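New to this. Explain the following:
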Amino acid sequence: MVLVLTACLSLAAAQTCQPELQAVAGDDLDRPATGLDAAVLMHAAVSLVEPALPRMMQPNVTVSEDQANRDTALQVAGWGLLPNSWTPEELSLEAWRYMNRRFLGWYGQSEPLPASVGTVGDLVADLARTLDKVSRSVRPAALLATDQDDGSRLSFMAIIWNWTAYPRLLVYRPERGLDLEGPPRDVLPYLSNCAVNVTAYILAPEETARDLFLAHNDSRMFVVATDPVTGGLPVEVPAGEELEAFAFGMPELSDARMYAAVFDGPEVGFATLLGLLSRVKTNVSPLSITSYLEIPAGR
């Protein structure tokens, strides 16, 4: 009975985001998988974990102008997830294993890897297993910023997303009517999905929240990507206008549901951080906060 229960639990755990991936794959899951199917599904999987992820390299594959989902395939290539041998028409086991291995590698993982290439439904199952491993490896923390004069009004909300291939702050536009009248944990589901479960939070007045990243006068903020995608990025946020950017007040952010920001300048020192922490509420220890805020070596 114990062995059966353990096997059932393992099978359930491997189904991470399977309905979401199936919705992208379409109704015909029994058709033979192609390279384009793999790219489209990988794009969906990455987007669940890594929204507003900028390009990290020049695409290493060629896709014809009239190819369906061309931009999606090039975006996956720009994340470094397609091998040089990839083609839209065919998918080899070597290519598919490469794609999963590279994705897992962003989080210090190396398996599971697909054992075969068959149907589109098989690709969905493979990626569900990959996402299960990824979802248990990420380290997100919510940053909930309140209005300086009204602690129940949510000024902006974000995910501190540093333990990843592209460290950044993911800033979300609060939904209409969302506030902090209740406990902060009530807001966390709005930052979570099937692949990312946000449980840690830092609640702070908006100026304190800003200073967690911009405590030094020579620090700079850049918007590097948005969802939906917009052109003209990256763009530097003018000094002193960071709170306007957090409130989606910049023209480049007028249509964005969320965006990714990075910061250039000296990291906040431990002594400064301790002073800032006296103004926040959180459900994690001060040492844990520093681990969320630090950028791992080599990132």
User: Anything to note?
Assistant: Residues 120-135 form the longest helix (16 residues). The longest strand covers residues 154-161. The mean pLDDT is 89.
